[in-house]
């Protein structure tokens, strides 16, 4: 036998063996993939999907309830008892309006109130938008006077009104008002 012919036969036999094993492997693999029982996994995934769908529906109903209650003429009041009524803070609407996360009862959202003034109001017992909205302008001025001379320049005349907008989730009206009025002054 010639060395060149032997080299050619070597490569031909190697190629044929590889092709045969490739075809056999393909059919064995195809058969195993087709015979796998997927019904248990499919049932589990269907159950999981239905649970997620019910959770999504519940969230959408809650969101719609909050949205429709915010548009309600009663300022989206949710009655807890005959004496107490609360308004649910709509964090999503506040965040979308201000393009940043807003914490509930953050007095700094009100134009003209910074960290120091917020701290003074907290010390005076005014820690929520509702409480500030019910505080008179004269009461706000008294708190500022207790802070000293440097707080005399602040004009709290719009703060209760802005606080009421925050408390009643009127975020678009608040941002519009703040944009139209320089430094929160009426």
Structure description:
It comes from marine sediment metagenome. The chain is mainly alpha-helical and 186 residues long. It folds into 2 domains: 3-71; 89-184, no CATH class. Helix content is 63%, strand content 3%. It has helices at residues 3-35, 39-71, 91-98, 115-123, 129-133, 137-146, 159-167, 171-180; strands spanning 77-79, 85-87. Strands 1-2 form a two-stranded antiparallel ribbon. Strand 1 (77-79) and strand 2 (85-87) form a beta hairpin. The longest helix is centred in the N-terminal third of the chain and has 33 residues, at 3-35. The protein starts with a helix and ends in a 6-residue tail after the last helix. 16% of the residues are buried. The model is unreliable at 73-83 (pLDDT under 50).
